[in-house]
Amino acid sequence: MQLVTLDAAPNAAGQPLFVEFVNTLHWYEGAPIELIGSEPEFAAWLLEHGLPAVDVPGCLPEVHRLREHVRGATEALTRRREVPEVDMQALQIALSAPTGSLRLVDSQSARPQLNFATDAAAADVFSFEIALSVALFLRSPQRKRLKLCANPGCGFAFVDTSINATRRWCFMRFCGNRVKVRAFRGRQKTGGRAL
Question: What is the DSSP-derived secondary structure letter of residue 9?
Fold first, then answer.
């Protein structure tokens, strides 16, 4: 039996699980970077995110399909559009796949947790956790802070946790710096020709 925490908080960087999952495929200068292209890479990613890495063999195509749907939902949300029906349907299926029951864990503590107990296959539980992360985010006030990196060759998703919600880059030291240097060099070339 697996327990899935229904009110899980974002990671230390403020990023929900589905954002971390979407970013397992991003681009560097337009070239795709696949972080879970093999079963060992996927198992390592699961463990890194505190998820069980059991029954991984054979589930990667299904995981990649789910990621495509979550990416579609993420892109729609960043553009302030409705989530495409095909992506929402995939998330609904993932939410309804495992059967189980609700449990209150640590009920005597200051912050008891609501969990979903299930005997479903590990792939179904993983899909459920990702879809649940999206569903909880849709109800969150952070929804309007979901962004894609402003570098057109990147595609990295993030929740802007800056005070003024003005963050534009996945990481300033990578994309932000790179784009600003390109713009500076472009201005220098243009300025040099004008003299």
Answer: P
